[in-house]
Amino acid sequence: MKPFIAIFFCVLGLVTVSSAQDITKLEKIGAVDSFTKSEKAVVFNCQDKSQVQVTVLAPDLIRIRASFAKPISAKDHSWALAKTDWTTPRWSLSETNDAVLIRTDEIEVLVHRSPLLIEFRDAKTHSLINADEQPMAYDAKGLLKDMMFDPQAGTFIAAAKKVGFDEHFYGLGEKAARLDKRRSSFVNWNSDTPGYTEGKDPIYQTVPFFTGLQNGSAYGIFFDNSYRSYFDFAKSSQQRIWFGAEGGELNYYFFYGPSLKKILNRYADLTGHMPLPPLWALGNQQSRWSYYPDTMVEEVVSEYRKRDLPLDVIHLDIDYMQGYRVFTWDRQRFRDPKALSEKLGRQGVKLITIVDPGVKYQPVAKSAGQITSITPELEPQDQRYYVFEQGVQQNYFQRRTNGDLFIPRVWPGESVFVDYTLPAAREWWGGLHRAYIDNGVAGIWNDMNEPSDFVDQTGKNQIDVVSYDEGAKSTHAKNRNVFAFLMARATYEGLERLRPNQRPYVITRAGYAGIQRYSTMWTGDTNSTWEALALNIPMFTTLGLSGEPFVGSDVGGFMGRGNGELLVRAYQISFLAPFCRNHKVIDGYDQEPWRFGKYYEDIIRKYLKLRYQLLPFLYNTLAEAHQTGTPLFRPLVLNYQDDRNTYNLDDEFMIGNDLLVAPVVKADVTRRLVYLPKGTWYDYWTNKKYEGGTTISADAPLESVPMFVRAGAIIPTGPELNYVGEKPVDPITFIIYPDDKGSASLTLYEDDGVSPAYKQDGFRRTTVNAARAAAGYTVSVSAPNGSYNPGPRKFRFLIKSAGPTRNVITVADDGTARSVTIR
Ligand code: MIG
Questions:
Q1: Among the atoms of ligand 1, which is closest to the Cα of residue 447?
Q2: Rounded to whole angstroms, how far apart are CA atoms 222 and 241?
């Protein structure tokens, strides 16, 4: 082999960990011997004493659970699940000589007896959706022990599926990869990976859920297993996809669409619908490692105001604490945190503080006096640190198998981690947030929660750390991937208790499936490079396809030195991402919107202002994500899954159903190709109409990112704002983009934006329909439903057509159904 090729394959070998496992060599589950049927499930008893349980949860949701050479355990627990009490739908069972057929109104599950192969079919057409390529398998002989994180903790298990000739794969949460996962393989093992680039795997999060799409028809598989897991989408062999894990159960949920949106809705039912964050979380955010002292924070905020740049949130990174002690304030740097938050609050800006899992290891000094303060977070902690002390007293910190405290090294130096699997420890941790809430902090940012350990980032230093785990007392191999999830849960529930009338707002770096119930996320330590910027689009859309709708990335990139052009192009993506926060590493070149001169700042201002005007539209789409599981930030395939041209399209995205954006992610480019799906599209900037189903060449000067609105849409917009709540959203302007028949429609969702009242009926839904009439257009507004009352305000209706906008009318919104004619 020529040396350069040898080097190439050597590098390839390093990144493709999973190609090491040959799952065809594993022991296959035995043939079916007998089966028993209960009200919800069928249990198959195999010749090798294995069992397979097929449970009917919903007409489009089936659970498969297998045990190898032993009965299925009576214990059945998962952190990820939000719903376990499914009402069993109608289903039936029938038998043939070689198979057992379980049938709901939507899916047929065919369990072939020998060999035991499971097949899913469409109940109406009987066409194949997905089929086992080999029987479920386990590593009976220990062939794969060498590559396992902890061979003591479990046995490798795997399932293999046939792969379609033109099948495409989406999901797996946070991956530094392109949208379509076909011909790629991945590992899930939450890892602190600063400066990651495309192909780096694993990174921070684990979401073992994917969808397969072929010929417009989709299914989903959620492999609910927190051990280090593997997904191979026809990479090591073109014959199969497979997934497996280094322990735990072969336990997966099978979803049938055929629509992706339907699968995402079911996945949200199963693992949790994202609750609505406060509306201000959609505001612009600014961060830096780290802004201190307090006067520096004030300076940044006043710079924002002076420069007429909107801002809702400023973040305090790790230097606000006393020697990185969580739940404390450095009083030299932040003399009076409450006064600071109040002062910022008067300018419409909220504070978010970072909270890491590492609690400084600090036994009480001999000379220490008693703690008497009821606000210990403001007192010096050098003699005794209240958080460490309380945690030790109550035995909430993780220990090794031998009983020693586990002492990793993180920012405070020697530290300890909480065992968040303990309900009491979670409650304690949640309550500690009083140290922030009482000082006016509005949201919490969880970092380093993979959990990162400077001693070793592979987890080896933590291998024998025991977690309570519902009495199972399991070790790191099982618990690493759910650590951040449980920390976020503790945080979210703590905030709920501390401020019951306000929606919690938590941001996390790591997570596990279901994390959307407790936290929003950002994509960690990216680079300030064009390559990293290009990854924003497939990463945001992939997270959306994995049940995590509230996503974003450090705008401008975290590591390294950016420039004005890169920063502008970054804002042209993130001004529509749910989480829009500029953030920079400690030694990085400054990156606030004004740092590269007026030319760039002016363009950034334009997009930030546009974001605030679009808030009614963004919030509407976010509410849809909460209700239906369909994310705000979408790949085109989610809206056009019958269109093969969208299957691997990941340099464009859509916000909701109506806005298509084709950003520029390369230097010095002012024109690009844009694929427009079938239908009519309006250029957002010029109103020029395009017939879709084709690729166009669009003008993309630095000032304007190509954006297109779907004909038939109505985009609700509000006034320009410096921050959310600065003034009433009045008037609401409905920008109407008639389709070829002259119609357009929208249902607008609104609520108070802060309280949990929306979970009852504290919302308002108003439907607006526009239709071409003899002279002009008729716009009808429904009587709203829901009990939220936004107060008096005006509606403006504005009809877009090619050329300049004419046809505007303003009416008072009096909460009744009405119809107006626009000439
Ligand atoms: O070891 O808190 O991803 O956003 O600024 C680095 C300091 C720790 C990593 C986070 C980054 C944050 C930084 N943190």
A1: 10
A2: 14
Q: How far apart are CA 578 and CA 566, in angstroms?
A: 20
For 236, residues 6+ apart whose C-beta sits below 8 A from its C-beta are 16, 18, 19, 22, 185
- CA–centroid distance, 447 to ligand 1, in Å, is 7
Rounded to the nearest angstrom, the distance between the alpha carbon of 590 and the centre of ligand 1 is 16
CA distance 50 to 72: 8
- How much is the pLDDT for 370? 84
Burial readout 378-394 (b: 16 or more C-beta within 10 A, e: otherwise): bbebeebbbbbbbbbee
Q: Which of 448, 583, 591 to mutate to test the pocket of ligand 1 (most atoms within 8 A of CB)?
A: 448
Q: What is the largest CA-CA distance in the chain?
A: 89
Q: How many CB atoms lie within 10 A of CB 294?
A: 20
Q: What is the pLDDT of residue 368?
A: 85
Q: Which residue's C-alpha comes closest to atom 13 of ligand 1? A: 289
3-class secondary structure for 152-198?
Answer: CCCCCEEEEEECCCCCEEEECCCCCCCCCCCCCEEEECCCCCCCCCC
Given this model, what pLDDT does residue 803 score? Answer: 54
Percent of the chain with pLDDT over 90: 94
pLDDT digits (tens, 9 = 90+) for 520-562: 999 999 999 999 999 999 999 999 999 999 999 999 999 999 9
Cα distance between residue 287 and residue 745, in whole Å: 38
Q: Give the residues of the chain that fall short of pLDDT 70.
A: 1-19, 802-806
For residues 132 and 118, the answer to whether their CB atoms sit within 8 Å is yes
Q: Is the CB of 713 under 6 A from ligand 1?
A: no
The chain-wide mean pLDDT, for the chain, equals: 96
Give per-residue burial for 333-351: e unless 16+ CB within 10 Å, then b.
bbeebeebbebbeeebbbb
Residues 44 and 67 sit within 8 Å (Cβ to Cβ):
no
Q: What is the pLDDT of residue 15?
A: 43
DSSP 8-state symbol, 415: E
Nearest ligand 1 atom, CA 411: 1
Distance 281 CA to ligand 1 centre (A): 20
**Which amino acid, 277?**
P
Q: Is the CB of 319 under 6 A from ligand 1?
A: no
- Closest C-alpha to 137, from 17, 21, 253, 250: 250
Prediction pTM value: 0.97
| Residue 60 identity (one-letter amino acid) | D
The span from the CA of 49 to the CA of 339, in Å, is 67
Q: What is the 3-state secondary structure (H, E, C) of 629-658?
A: CCCCEECHHHHCCCCHHHCCCCCCEEECCC
Please tell me the predicted confidence (pLDDT) of residue 804: 56
What is the DSSP-derived secondary structure letter of residue 472? T
CA 540 – ligand 1 centroid, Å: 20
Residue with tokens 């990976």: 193
Axis-axis angle for helices 598-613, 615-628 (nearest 10): 60
Q: What is the pLDDT of residue 802?
A: 56
Contacts of 97 (CB under 8 A, 6+ apart): none
Nearest Cα neighbor of 225 from 63, 60, 48, 110 is: 63
**Ligand 1 in reach of 317 Cβ (< 6 A):** yes
pLDDT for 367 equals 86
Best residue for ligand 1 mutational test, from 354, 355, 579 (most atoms within 8 Å of Cβ) = 354
Strands in 561-625 per DSSP E: 581-582
Judge whether 249 and 106 are in contact, CB under 8 Å.
Answer: no
Cis peptide before 135 (omega within 30 of 0): no
